[in-house]
């Protein structure tokens, strides 16, 4: 039975200076399975109250405990969820639970454990060299293998095949295991092996995994080779694939110990944490562009609106990557404007949200009704819906019908636009000074903010003013028109 290191070598951060089998034996090295290795290191981290999955937000009370249960149970794992739910990232982060270094027989294609070899090459080398058998060390970062399942993946890719050239050169029969060319899975021995989008694998390919998961047998072109591979399997799957492109065959599903359901962020606060952690920003953007908290909330609300939209295919999901790329676009839009106007520093405007539309259109799958509307039109609808949703959190609800002669909370603003055909024009490339001058013309905006949002920070005032205009437009109290270089309120 396979095991891995359980001695002080576990804690060594530098590569151990042990180069022969004899020296390894003298060090007191013992062996254990990779699943035991993951389990033992997880136990240590839990006892030390260390965060194993750093940078994963919103899963603290759902996915992560279940994942830790599966590791403690030594299970192979299937992460089931829609796209953009950090399934692959969770799998990659499991390498932090591996020992820093493990020994293997030098030259082995499948990382043979020196004390328990399984390949003919390693066995014959140890028989010939004995304690002088050379060993090398494998770092945990090299013990992660990943394969995206596609319909064209073959058994030879995953398991291996007979190499006729090797058979001819060595004058060996095809039935001899020395003529085998190992596939990805045997080469991942003593490692974590991830198969993404498992249902996309053809059923016959999934069948080839049965014995590997259960007994460790490898069958190549009808030849059964007993190779008790030591692998931690992690599969990922999208529920959509079960009907659209394929399914996980029942016997294989039965051999996967734990199936864990992932999910999208449950609230804006968690979504903002993910976006903040994952966004790739230039330091000059961070210093030169101020982002009001309301703008961050609005950006995340777009994602929530998309997941509930009648125009978006909910089965496909809306990846968290949409908010991340949209945030990067938002800052780039503001940065480009400041470069054009010569403003050294600027603040994000609501009109800058027009710059995130390419990030939205590339991340949502539209249903038939959405295709009829058009991707860009749907993106604008999502932005308007997000504004409408958040507007009631800051200001009174805009009533569709108001009592006759009763002045609503926004009456002064709408009156301003009625007087002398008032209008506001905000261009995409206007300077901060011009932007402020346009919004400050409407004194009623200051009175509304002072009454309902008196704690608004000074640097957020202009964004809040523009937010009111967009909110009234979304609620059909003002007209908003988009022209080539800006927006026009009337």
User: Beta-strand level of the residues, as a percent range?
Assistant: 5-15%
Terminus-to-terminus distance: 77 Å
Derived structural class: alpha/beta
Instruction: Name the poorly predicted regions.
Output: 1-7
Largest sheet descriptor: 5 strands, parallel
**Helix content range:** 40-55%
The Cα radius of gyration reads: 30 Å
Q: Treating each run of at least 4 consecutive H or I residues as one helix, how many helices? A: 23
- How many β strands by DSSP? 16
General shape: elongated
Query: How many domains in all?
Result: 2
Characterize the quaternary organization of these chains. single chain
> What's the average pLDDT?
84
Going across the major beta sheet, what is the strand order? 4-7-10-1-11
